[in-house]
Design goal:
The protein is α+β, with helices and mostly antiparallel strands. The chain has 32 helices and 27 strands. The strands form 4 sheets. Strands 10, 11, 12, 15, 16, 17, 18, 19, 20 and 21 form a 10-stranded mixed beta sheet that branches. Helix 6 packs parallel to helix 27, helix 11 runs parallel beside helix 27 and helix 30 packs across helix 31. The N terminus and C terminus are likely disordered.
Length: 928
């Protein structure tokens, strides 16, 4: 199949099938009411391809593994290993190689296999479909459907392709996954405007959406990648994954360290060659020793393990992390863009207000759980026997729908149309006796007349046979007002209809973002059936019901917490502007009073990218948006340096979730496409979990920063010792493998203590940190440099003293390694209270991992010193009490000196503008 043929075949369907008649669409796709022939369908399938989304090429396991070694510090170690191999130092080469391999494997194993978002999109497609070919209906594999096929759908089916309706019967489609609109869409074969948005194309059915009620027939106008879901899959595949703030900062730190290491290595080699006349082998050994000493090879592993521990903590808080870096990124978020339906709201239609001519009633409870009361204006439970106006209305609501709710293992769900489910729950809460009523006839809901009616037989003692018949009608308020002459009065009788008053009440509920339905009735004794023509007049208007997809109760508090943390929350939804604005006010996203600045998809369409960038930070409500609009909003925010988190549950959210700095999906009601595109999946579908995850992310970043401050002096001290030895022209106090040993054991024992440090007070009262802020602030660098000098001097002194005392280089080197271990243990206590004095008992409490790590470090160090196989591998040797006492005493000195240095740095910092980062005074971590 050549490209030109494919393009021509896919152009057969008109660009706006919804805007022309079904007959014109059939002619455009060279089909007819009887469908295609088997031969023609096979020909088109061979030409156009299967009705499937394209499978993207996945990187091989090898490529994904190599990506974990793309670090300049790892490159330096690789060069050192190669030089060792050239010189034949195979023990040193093996140790360095093991370190390199282990560093990458940790990240590879923890991250696991990242699945493609497109796999989730493919799961949304139907597996089979009813198709008419050769004039006969049959069931075929949906992948074999082609443009021009005539298909049939009914309640419960998943639409197999994009279809232009030809006929329909009370057809309603759940398009929330595609459009974000919580109410099921009514469908008909009537044409609509060519510029109608996806949510307004009522004559179209879209691939992957679900039929909630009714049935219909239509002609396929798009398959595979040409469907709306296919178009979204292309958007997902086109989004580039952005580096996280932490990744960018660590890469910057790595480049700085590599430049510094290179400059110092050259200086050291020149001095060794020209001043001390060292030979090439000695210079190469010194250079390798210096490189291994200066490179913090434990840093990647430390960051990975810290993030992995954070992933475990977040899982306990119902946030499942698919990509480890997302933990930290969420902690640096400045803006959360959230879908409305199913994320901020429950995606469960709920009757909230009932209005009759007599009174206004409030309905308690949310969602499909039929627990709650209907209360009057005094806050008392409304007894139906005392309130006949309410009794008649809720009875009509309960009788004119075919939906019901049922309890599953973990929640209540609706079987049928969500709006009708809300009416069923309302009747149950009010205590309406719908079970004793027999339905005699019905007029189903159709989009042309916008109401449903039933002929019902009710038990009563007022007639000889004990029953009476009534017509009950529920639907659009304007259609029922047109057919009503009277309204229900307080005593249960009737009064003339006051249409103006009802229109005011309807407008008041609509202004609150409620979807308004009306109910009406009339006696029907002696009537055996009803048809649409019987309902043109004579109805008694009972009242109106305000229905809403209610906000999650916990979402309001979570949004307030986010605002307190300096995080802006923006609602981006496919729902109408009025509904979106009302929900935004209720959630606290928009002000409760005054005008709300809200943009619709049409507004966004009229703006170019520059115009959108100018207003995007000031607008918190976006309505009637498409997937492309959401992408533009995220890009515009990122252009201002915002770190954007995008949350959602529908397939229409997948592209923007992929593009955002961190994507968050709902785990229960979210589509597979969204969950596979996301970095974090909320197992409880709770927006409040995002706020808790932000707090966890901030704690993790603080601990990574503390860990970096703690880890670097080990390398700094070792590098200073090597440089000092070269400058003095003496034998190296540390061999490369000994340097690797101390780097790894301190990184993987002591550093993990800081990874588990609890959150600092006031963590969620800080403003988000700047995207340009580095892991190491100037004060943190001052601490690192000071600690490097202090620990380095102590190590060099131990080496010289033990060398002169014993004349044994192995004892001197082993003692120097021990000094580095104990010096780091002392400095760990300094780092635990980095922003204050560690001269307190608190430095020894609050984190039991401190003692575990210290004990593990000492056990490993004893093995390094006394195990014969370790002596062979690392050129270590047993040492006596004198060496232990000397190193322990100097370690105490390290702790005392560093506390003095911290106090000086704090005092200097208090006289200069404060930075957010390490060593602020008090709560100076807040950024204005």
């Amino acid at each position: 199949m050549n490209v030109s043929e494919t393009d021509r075949s896919r152009a057969e369907a008109p660009a706006a099938s919804w805007a022309i008649t079904g007959g014109e669409v059939l002619r455009a796709v060279a089909s007819g009411p009887e469908g295609l022939t088997e031969g023609e369908s096979e020909s088109r399938l061979a030409r156009d391809g299967r009705n499937e989304l394209p499978t993207p090429p996945e990187p091989s396991v090898f490529k994904r593994l190599l990506a974990h070694y793309a670090d300049v510090l790892i490159y330096i170690l690789i060069v050192a290993a190669v030089l060792k191999a050239i010189r034949g130092d195979w023990v040193d080469f093996t140790v360095i190689a093991v370190v390199i391999v282990a560093t990458g494997l940790i990240g590879f194993i923890q991250e696991g296999r990242a699945a493609s978002a497109l796999a989730g999109l493919r799961k949304m497609q139907s597996l089979s479909a009813q198709v008419r070919r050769d004039g006969t209906w049959g069931v075929v594999d949906s992948a074999t459907i082609v443009v021009g096929d005539v298909v049939r759908v009914r309640s419960g089916d998943r639409v197999p392709a994009d279809v232009r309706l030809l006929t329909s019967g009370r057809l309603q489609i759940d398009e929330s996954a595609l459009t974000g609109e919580s109410v099921a869409a009514d469908k008909s074969d009537e044409i609509v405007a060519a510029d109608a948005g996806i949510g307004d194309r009522t004559s179209m059915l879209f691939s992957g959406t679900i039929v909630t009620a009714g049935n219909g027939e239509g002609v396929v106008v798009a398959t595979g990648r040409d469907t709306e879901i296919g178009r979204i899959s292309v958007l997902v595949s086109e989004q580039d994954q952005m580096d996280t703030p932490l990744a960018r900062q660590l890469a910057h730190l790595g480049k700085q360290l590599s430049i510094l290491i290179g400059v110092l290595a050259v200086v050291m080699l020149l001095i060794g060659w020209f001043v001390h006349g060292l030979d090439v082998d000695e210079l190469i050994s010194a250079a390798i020793g210096f490189a291994v000493a200066a490179v913090p090879e434990g840093l990647p592993a430390l960051v990975t393990i810290t993030l992995a521990l954070g992933v475990q903590q977040m899982a306990k808080r119902h946030a499942i992390t698919r990509k480890m870096e997302a933990v930290e990124t969420l902690g640096s978020t400045t803006t959360i863009c959230s879908d409305k339906t199913g994320t901020l709201t429950q995606n469960e239609m709920t009757a909230r207000t009932v209005v009759t001519a007599v009174s206004t009633y409030t309905v308690e409870g949310t969602g499909y759980d039929p627990v709650g009361r209907v209360v009057n204006s005094d806050g008392q439970t409304a007894d139906l026997a005392v309130h006949p106006d309410l009794s008649d209305l809720v009875l009509a609501a309960g009788l004119t729908n075919d939906a019901h709710v049922e309890q599953t293992e973990d929640r209540w769900r609706v079987v049928g149309v969500p709006t009708e489910g809300a009416l069923d729950v309302l009747a149950a809460k009010a205590g309406a006796a719908t079970g004793a009523v027999t339905r005699v006839g019905a007029v189903p809901f159709e989009s042309t007349h916008k109401f449903a009616a039933t002929l019902d037989e009710l038990p009563t003692g007022s007639t000889p046979d004990g029953v009476t018949r009534f017509v009950h009608v529920v639907g659009a308020p304007d259609r029922l007002l047109d057919r009503a002459d009277t309204e229900r009065s307080a005593d249960g009788g009737t009064a003339p209809l006051n249409r103006a008053a009802w229109e005011e009440r309807i407008d008041a509920l609509s202004a609150k973002g409620l979807r308004v339905l009306a109910a009406a009735t009339r006696p029907a004794d002696g009537v055996d059936n009803i048809v649409l023509g019987d309902l043109d007049g004579g109805l008694t208007f009972l009242g109106i019901i305000g229905i809403v997809d209610p906000p999650r109760p916990e979402a309001t508090a979570a949004i307030a917490e986010a605002h307190a943390a300096g995080i802006r929350v923006k609602m981006i939804t496919g729902d109408h502007r009025g509904t979106a604005t009302a929900i935004a006010r209720e959630l606290g996203i928009a002000p409760a009073e005054g005008e709300v600045l809200a943009l619709t998809g049409a507004d966004l369409q009229a703006m170019d990218d520059d115009e959108l960038r100018r207003v995007v930070r000031d607008v918190d409500v976006y309505a009637r948006t498409s997937p492309e609009h959401k992408l533009r909003i995220v890009r515009a925010l990122q252009s201002h340096g915002e770190v954007v988190a995008m949350t959602g549950d529908g397939v229409n959210d997948a592209p923007s979730i992929t593009l955002a700095d961190v994507g968050v999906a709902m785990g229960i009601k979210g589509t597979e496409a969204t969950k596979e595109a996301a970095d974090i999946v909320l197992a409880d579908d709770n927006f409040a979990t995002i706020e808790r995850a932000v707090e966890e992310g901030r704690r993790i970043y603080d601990n990574i920063r503390k860990s970096v401050v703690f880890l670097l002096p080990t390398n700094g001290a070792q590098a200073l010792v090597i440089i000092a030895a070269v400058l003095a022209g003496i034998a190296l106090p540390l061999s490369p493998v000994q340097i690797l040993w101390i780097n790894l054991v301190t990184a993987l024992t002591l550093s993990l203590t800081l990874a588990r440090e609890p959150a600092e007070p006031g963590l969620m009262r800080r403003m988000p940190r700047s995207a340009t802020e580095q892991v190491l602030s100037s004060r943190a660098i001052a601490v690192v440099l000071t600690a490097s000098v202090v620990i380095g001097v102590a190590t060099f002194v131990v080496y010289l003293l033990e060398r002169d005392r014993t004349g044994d280089y192995a004892v001197a080197q082993t003692s120097a390694v021990l000094m580095l271990a104990l010096g780091q243990l002392a400095f760990l206590l300094n780092c635990r209270l980095l922003n204050g004095s560690a001269f307190t008992v608190r430095v020894l409490t609050g984190n039991r991992n401190l003692w575990i790590s210290a004990g593990l470090l000492m056990a490993l160090q004893i093995m390094f010193t006394y195990a014969p196989f370790m002596n062979d591998w690392f050129d270590s040797t047993p040492i006596g009490f004198h060496s232990w006492a000397l190193t322990a005493g100097l370690a105490v000195g390290v702790f005392v000196v560093m506390e003095g240095a911290k106090a000086v740095i704090r005092r200097i910092g208090n006289r200069t503008p404060r930075e957010q980062g390490a060593l602020p005074a008090g709560n100076a971590t807040h950024r204005a």
